[in-house]
Amino acid sequence: MNQRSRLSLLVIQIFIASLMLALFGRLFYLQVAAGPIYRDAALSIQSRDVVTPANRGFIVDSSGVPMALNRVGLAVTVDRTKIDKLPEKGVAVVKDLVTLLGLNFDDVWQRTRLCGELPKGKKAGCWTGSRFQPIPITNTADPQIALRIVERSDRYPGISATPLAIRSYPTTLGLNGGHVLGYVGPLTESDLAGANGRSYFRSESIGKAGLEIVYDEYLRGNPGIKTFIVDRKEAVTTTSKNTKPVAGNHLVTSLDIRLQAATEAALAAAVKRARGSGFRADGGAAVVLDVRNGQVLSLASYPTFDPNAFETGLTVQEAEDLYSEKTGVPALNRALQGLYALGSTFKAVSVIAAKDAGYSLSASYACPSEVQVGTRAFQNFESKAQGTLSMKKAIAVSCDTIWYRIAYDEWLRDGGLRPKSNPNDYFFKAAEKFQMGKKTGVDLPSESSGRLANREWRKAWYSQNKDFYCNYKERSTKSQQTAFLLQLARENCLDGDKIRAGDAVNFSIGQGDTVVTPLKLAQMYAAIANGGTIWKPTVAKAIVKTDGTVLRTFQPEKLGELGEDQATIDFLHDALREVAISGTAAGAFAGFPVATSGKTGTAQVFGRNPNGSAKSDTSWYASFAPAKNPRYAVVMMVSQGGYGAGTSGVGVRQIYEAIFGAQGSTVKPELALFPNGKPPTTLPRISPATKPKPSILNPGKPKVLASPTPTAKAKVKR
After folding, report:
1. How far is Cα 524 from Cα 440, in angstroms, rounded to an integer?
2. Which of 25, 354, 382, 622 lies 20 to 30 angstroms, CA to CA, from 431?
3. Residue 422 — left, alpha, or beta (φ > 0 → left; ψ -120 to 50 → alpha)?
4. How many CB atoms lie under 10 A from the CB of residue 382?
5. pLDDT in tens, 214-232
6. Per the record, which residues fall in region Disordered (predicted)?
């Protein structure tokens, strides 16, 4: 055998040896290393899991009164994996079913369609969960009708009826609470895929908005799992696992159910009052904070929605209305998502700017009817001249022209259109002290950060919009090419990256591009009230287990200090008190038995409504009380609500009436919400007496569910 043959034989031997080694290695991996994995896989083929979702924890107010709890319902569900195999995907079966239940076919059909199956703009009321989950079309079924459906499975294939736990939001004292409490719903495919880092079972429900989603990990609990081993005929041979569900923990909040209901009622009344005065009043918000620690005592947005509707059932039309501009977009939480110009409520910030710039707060200043700024005259409100006023009186009567002059003078000192390398920017820096432009950090979802229109923002805005304004004729429609808009586009093209004189004077009275949320303004006035501390607004106080054990408490979080001397704080307290005594809010608070301090705001809004009418002013009232020892900061805003005092000022007074137990010009201590003068700081005891008793819902015409609903088989045990 020659050398070449020996080499070939050696290569073949090495190849065979390597192959055998690889085969033995693979065999070892399958039988030893990966043995447990494959044993579990084999077992799963023979096993069936029955999941019992856990009872969701309560959400209670600061006194332990439930604001969200559970009750028992009876659901009729559709199994898409079965009806899709029927002729016309089960249209005949669904039509027969809706006739029996007294429902609308279009609503039910839409409700059982996956959102991904429907075209854009036609998804209202679609099923956000999975095809493999039973899709509930009503959870208030008559037990007799449900029994007929179960007994006639041949007539209603893919249709079943089962008891389930329903999330319930009591309407105690007329409480709504939709925007702060939120609601629950089914899992989406991304949830099941672990998009948020958690694992779920298909039959579970999770929080979708408000406190329900923020504290879902505590409220949800752990589902019970019973695993059956079955043979090839699906007969149960044994039970390999049986864990009972662990109920979710309770969330104790800083909210007061009485104050929340009163705040909602006062806000709704303010909107109606504005409409009665001829204003459009398309929405509003109100917030009450504890100035000592930032706790949210109540938070309301108008228009609102019924959180129970996501369980008892939304029609397709109701689902569309939640996000429709015609209905005011009820799903929008205006208290922490809506952004609005502050109007004269900003003048409390301007006081600090003026003091920092060297203006005496004890001096008097002229308040003419108008001030000439460049080529434009900036008028006082209703062009009224007020003579010479002290700074305190100027705040009380809300003189604008004083601030026009101060802001314009400081703009010139900073270099005008050719600013110094290090401008003083007293007004911008005063706003930064209040952390304007930043989120408050409240423990509610989707908060807006607001906008502080300073030099940095202006440059960023110009960078994004320069091309549009410099090519305005080519990029705008003919209807947008009015003389005013063409001139505005030209100015923005030439020096849109600079703070102009008009920007500076508008900024000083809360107009222009700076916008905040009502919650941010409440945080700002709470800081003035407590002497300068900026607290993070919080709703949660504690997580409590079902046995009463406190699992976690949430401590107040200090975000910063205004850094102002006591003399400046005292001046602001006195000036804002004067507003309610002899200033713009004197009429709204005439005869009120508790001393309050506040500031009206009537912010002009640029633009037009869908019907072509000019937008009305934004009505504000920002306040705190009692004036000498503040405990509460109360802010109300009504979008397109007109004057600050007549709309929001009266609404804030009604909230204070509820807090202090005021009737007319007297205080009745027995009616006060907090007899000790301040909200409770201790945790309430959540006793069994506050827990709901399970009961099958009363027979009645059910509604079509157009929202998430759990499909638990277990009854609520509370």
Report:
1. 10
2. 382
3. beta
4. 6
5. 999 999 998 887 776 766 5
6. 676-718
Tokens 């000790």 correspond to 676
Please determine, for residue 5, whether its predicted confidence score (pLDDT) is greater than 90. Answer: no
**Residue recorded with tokens 């301090």:** 597
Please state, as a whole number, how many other Cβ atoms lie within 10 Å of the Cβ of residue 196. 12
**Inter-residue contact 449 to 337 (CB < 8 Å):** no
- Report pLDDT digits (tens) over 631-640: 999 999 999 9
Q: 280: which 2 tokens?
A: 């459009």
% of the chain residues with pLDDT over 70? 89
Using alpha carbons, select from 342, 662, 644, 262 the residue that is nearest to residue 523: 342
Residue 41 has a pLDDT of 56
Token pair for residue 338?
């809506």
Report residue 707's pLDDT band, with 50, 70 and 90 as the boundaries. very low
Q: What is the DSSP letter of 29?
A: I
> In this structure, which amino acid lies at residue 451?
R
Interacting residues of 13 by C-beta distance below 8 A, sequence separation 6+: none
Minimal CA–CA distance to 206: which of 216, 214, 221? 216
**Alpha-carbon gap, residue 58 to 53, rounded angstroms:** 15
E strands in 452-569? 533-535, 540-544, 550-553, 558-561
DSSP character for 113? S
Residue type, 176: N
Q: To 5 degrees, how large is the angle CA 85–CA 87–CA 93?
A: 90
In contact, 607 and 583? CB cutoff 8 Å: no
Whole-number pLDDT of residue 690: 40
C-alpha separations of 682 from 61, 177, 253, 254, 299 in Å? 12, 23, 11, 10, 21
d(CA 354, CA 338): 29
Cα separation, 493 vs 469, in Å, equals 5
| pLDDT above 90: percentage of residues in the chain | 58
**Which tokens is 501 given?**
């004189």
DSSP annotation of 611 reads T
Helix, coil or strand: residue 618: strand
At position 120, the amino acid (one-letter code) is K
59: which DSSP letter?
E
> What pLDDT was estimated at residue 363?
97
Beta strands in 592-677 (DSSP E): 597-603, 618-625, 632-639, 662-663, 666-667
User: Which pTM was predicted?
Assistant: 0.83
